[in-house]
Amino acid sequence: MMKKKPITWLEAKVQGTPFAFLGQFIRFGLVGVSNTLIQYAIEMLGYYVVFRDTSFEGAASLLRGLGLSGVTGEAVRVVVVTAIGFVISVTNAYYWNSRFVFGEGGKPVRSWAGYFKSVASYGFTGLVLAPVLKLWMQGWGLPYWAVTLLTLIVTIPLNFVLNKLWAFRRRDHTGKEEA
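Below the sequence we write its predicted structure tokens.
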């Protein structure tokens, strides 16, 4: 097995130390900040510009006909712009995580399987786990802002671990995991 070449002198000094892991986690956080800004911008653009005059009443009517009573066109609009923002921001996350966070020497880690695993990781933590945690912690009587911060303390590190160990897991030319 070939030894990996460090990118810089500093990386050579911290490779295999807790500092390397911390640096990777910090880069993951920076990518996360960009994702948040992209998600917000896409949602605002979709809500206030692109779909401003779209009622989505046809889709709401269809959903009500399927037994989802109380669904409004406004609710469908919110779900649509949120979904579009999610897909675009997670695609951005995959792009930068594959190069800036988990790539090696500027060489990206690319695969469709990795992309879909990354989407699944963000989907699980953001669309399943976060709402469940928020509802559970609201039962403690905490204000929503505190519940949201506590949820981030759980979901951000979990997302990092899922991406590092699942979506961007490295294998050598024989298919075995690299250390």
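Residues 18-50 form the longest helix (33 residues).
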